[in-house]
DNA sequence: ATTTGACTTTTTTACCGAAATGGTCGAAAA
DNA sequence: TTTTCGACCATTTCGGTAAAAAAGTCAAAT
């Protein structure tokens, strides 16, 4: 079976799509645009994907998987849970920044009734919440952390990340990003009360 | 001077306006609606206010002042900075919840190009950041807190609050609100690292 | 197995007059 | 003098519609 070629073209289509989605958003990008960018006829897209939505989901999924594998690879070499959280935050925010165009495109369309985009967001919010919760639980089990209510704490932490994320979409202050992450982590680990 | 009556009518107009803005948002509320609600002719509104925007700003200002005075009154009887922060968070979030209709209305219109609403939001974001910063500074000066970079920490904290605020607009989980505030404050004060 | 042009169906756009809306002004009421 | 409002204007929104553009289908060609 010549699956290779098939996959290669599929991949090239997704790359074209990602570029365009990041630049123009979901709505403003047409199937024709994607096809042209990939030097194919529009109809060909439907040989590889069943719909525009599916293409978009595939693009997002690819980036999500890429992110997850970066995280997994990075964290598996780290023993200290605290350090894992540090790395997670740092990679997470920088990755977000790199993809901010795509995210911004999502965000714009997303408050325009595109409920399938909202579903995608919720899906990943849930996943992130779960991931954070697992990290915290592990830290507690290893006696590194001391947390009364892990569920609420995870939620607070996930919310805090999203709060940090929001202004990044608007003005891209790359300068302060690391400082802000540090500040958040410093609070998270040690709090502000003097001892 | 019979300023009393003037002020009374003005107030009644603002009450009508607030009700309607909270229900329908800025755009869907017409000057006629406000006038009818207050049993006046539309033209009369312009005797008390110069424009629709001004009415909206006045409504928001009233609520903001009300909030500030609640905060001031509550905090001035508290000596402990930590306790002040607790109270601030609690009142802040509950107040937000009470006004969530108005906020939601703002939020909807706000991503619809109403840049004057965006300005209002930014204004209050700035004020909140400043307020938080002052609280932290006071805590540090009184040797209650130990914070490396107050600016970044304030920013992180303000972001965290806004992150917590966001899901409240969507689903109104009153149940978990207090727990989540507690979780956030617990992190803020003591961190999660075991000692 | 892959591509595409011709085709159908659905969605968006452009445009129009009508209605609604924000805002003004001066006369009238209080 | 202070307050109210009807008549009025300018601009924006709305409803409906025809044309354009887009998504999606399919069978023939490669």
Q: H/E series of chain A, N to C?
A: HHHHHHHHH
Largest interface: A-B, 41 and 41 residues
> Which oligomeric state applies?
homodimer
Tally of separate helices of chain A: 9
- Average the pLDDT over all residues of chain A and give the rounded result: 88
Shape field of chain A: elongated
Percentage of β-strand residues of chain A = under 5%
Structural class call of chain A reads mainly alpha
**What would CATH call the class of the domain at 80-190 in chain A?**
Mainly Alpha
Helix content of chain A: over 70%
The CATH H-level homologous superfamily of the domain at 80-190 in chain A? Tetracycline Repressor, domain 2
- CATH fold-level assignment of the domain at 80-190 in chain A: Tetracycline Repressor, domain 2
Second rung of CATH, namely the architecture of the domain at 80-190 in chain A: Orthogonal Bundle
Major sheet details of chain A = none
Alpha-carbon distance between the two ends of chain A: 67 Å
What does the radius of gyration of chain A come to? Answer: 20 Å
DSSP strand count of chain A = 0
- Low-confidence spans of chain A: pLDDT under 50, at least 5 residues? none
């Amino acid at each position: 079976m010549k699956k290779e070629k098939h996959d290669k073209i599929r991949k090239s289509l997704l790359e074209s799509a990602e570029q365009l989605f990041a630049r123009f958003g979901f709505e403003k990008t047409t199937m024709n645009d994607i096809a042209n960018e990939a030097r194919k006829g529009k109809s060909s897209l439907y040989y590889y994907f069943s719909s525009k939505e599916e293409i978009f989901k595939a693009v997002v999924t690819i980036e999500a998987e890429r992110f997850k594998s970066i995280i997994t690879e990075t964290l598996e070499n780290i023993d200290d849970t605290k350090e894992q959280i540090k790395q997670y935050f740092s990679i997470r925010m920088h990755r977000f920044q790199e993809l901010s165009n795509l995210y911004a495109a999502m965000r714009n369309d997303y408050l325009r009734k595109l409920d399938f985009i909202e579903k995608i967001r919720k899906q990943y919010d849930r996943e992130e919440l779960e991931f954070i919760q697992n990290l915290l639980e592990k830290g507690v089990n290893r006696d590194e952390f001391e947390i009364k209510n892990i569920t609420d704490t995870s939620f607070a932490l996930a919310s805090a990340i999203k709060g940090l994320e929001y202004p990044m979409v608007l003005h891209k202050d790359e300068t302060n990003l690391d400082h802000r992450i540090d500040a958040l982590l410093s609070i998270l680990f040690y709090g502000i009360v003097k001892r």
